[in-house]
């Protein structure tokens, strides 16, 4: 039996870690840390620092190389193949470090339930016949970090919010029946595909980290600044994670 705990660790600030997360980390026999290449070394460095700060017992910490998703071909097929490869990597690490079973933890950026595929990858391990029990420890999501950084509510009074992706905004435009739209996993500037009239945007990158950057304002004016700032930050750091909220003025 493998007891797998998926622990939300927030968006880069070690102070976002919950007491439940700290307890779960110290209860684990093994914590696996994914390496995403030299250009994203900041991400594993944050995880290593969290482990150094909170682990007090014999929990082992092991890094492993995360497979790279191919950029060509059908997007969904590429993601499915990528998840298969990650599941294979998890299985190999479990066989190497927990051959008799035990308690495994993975530190998930943000929250495991919001645009993260750790739970889907865990399902693959079950489908392969692994005796697996999964527990989720929620964490501060990028949307919570964004609204906190800008000191704004996620929704307008009594109005709905749609959480979607940059791909959906580029392909389909503003979601129907939504006054507020939160956009994640945007490769860059999907908001340029919509009419900016009457739309306000709140954008944030590297939320919770030392290099955090924020821009807000009417989309017609702020959009170009976000595109330029995003490109400059990506060039400087070699990677970027950002998220934004847009809201239409309602009468």
Written description of the protein model:
It is a single chain. This protein is an alpha/beta fold. The protein folds into two domains: 2-137, Cobalt-precorrin-4 Transmethylase, domain 1 (3-Layer(aba) Sandwich), CATH 3.40.1010.10; 142-248, 2-Layer Sandwich (Methyltransferase, Cobalt-precorrin-4 Transmethylase, Domain 2), CATH 3.30.950.10. 36% of the residues lie in helices and 25% in strands. The protein has helices spanning 19-27, 41-54, 75-97, 118-127, 142-150, 166-172, 219-237, and strands spanning 2-8, 30-35, 60-65, 102-108, 132-137, 161-165, 180-184, 199-205, 213-218, 242-248. It has a five-stranded parallel sheet, with helices on both faces. Helix 2 links the parallel strand 2 (30-35) and strand 3. The N and C termini lie far apart (57 Å). GO terms for molecular function: precorrin-6A synthase (deacetylating) activity. Residues 4-222 form the Tetrapyrrole methylase domain.
Order of helices and strands: EHEHEHEHEHEHEEEHE
Number of DSSP-assigned strands:
10
User: Major sheet: size, sense and barrel closure?
Assistant: 5 strands, parallel
Give the helix/strand class.
Answer: alpha/beta
Rough shape? globular
How many domains make up the coordinates?
2
First and last CA, distance: 57 Å
Q: Which runs of at least 5 residues are low in confidence (pLDDT < 50)? A: none
Radius of gyration equals 19 Å
CATH class of the largest domain: Alpha Beta
Number of helices: 7
The CATH architecture assignment of the largest domain turns out to be: 3-Layer(aba) Sandwich
Question: Could you give me the name of the CATH homologous superfamily of the largest domain?
Answer: Tetrapyrrole methylase, N-terminal domain
Helix content: 25-40%
Strand arrangement, major sheet: 3-2-4-1-5
Strand content: 15-25%
Mean of all residue-level pLDDT scores? 95
CATH T-level fold name of the largest domain? Cobalt-precorrin-4 Transmethylase, domain 1
GO biological process, one term: methylation
Keywords: Cobalamin biosynthesis, Methyltransferase, S-adenosyl-L-methionine, Transferase
Organism: Sphingobium cyanobacteriorum
EC number: 2.1.1.152
């Amino acid at each position: 039996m493998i007891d797998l705990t998926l622990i939300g660790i927030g968006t880069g600030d070690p102070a976002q870690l919950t007491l439940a997360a700290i307890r779960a980390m110290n209860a684990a026999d093994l914590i696996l840390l994914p390496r995403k290449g030299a250009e994203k070394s900041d991400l594993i460095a944050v995880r290593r620092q969290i482990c150094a700060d909170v682990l007090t017992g014999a929990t082992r910490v092991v890094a492993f190389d995360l497979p790279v998703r191919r950029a060509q071909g059908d997007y969904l097929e590429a993601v499915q193949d990528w998840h298969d490869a990650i599941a294979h990597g998890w299985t190999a690490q479990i066989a190497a470090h927990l051959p008799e079973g035990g308690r495994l933890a993975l530190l998930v950026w943000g929250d495991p339930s919001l645009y993260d595929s750790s739970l889907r990858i865990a399902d693959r391990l079950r489908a392969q016949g692994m005796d697996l029990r999964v527990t989720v420890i929620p964490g501060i999501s990028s949307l919570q970090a964004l609204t906190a950084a800008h000191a704004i509510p996620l929704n307008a009074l009594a109005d709905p919010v749609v959480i979607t992706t940059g791909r959906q905004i580029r392909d389909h435009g503003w979601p129907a029946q939504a006054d507020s739209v939160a956009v994640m996993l945007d490769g860059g500037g999907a908001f340029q595909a919509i009419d900016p009239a009457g739309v306000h945007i709140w954008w944030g990158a590297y939320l919770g980290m030392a290099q955090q950057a924020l821009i807000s304002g009417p989309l017609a004016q702020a959009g170009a600044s976000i595109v330029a700032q995003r490109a400059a930050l990506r060039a400087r750091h070699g990677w970027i994670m950002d998220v934004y909220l847009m809201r239409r003025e309602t009468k």
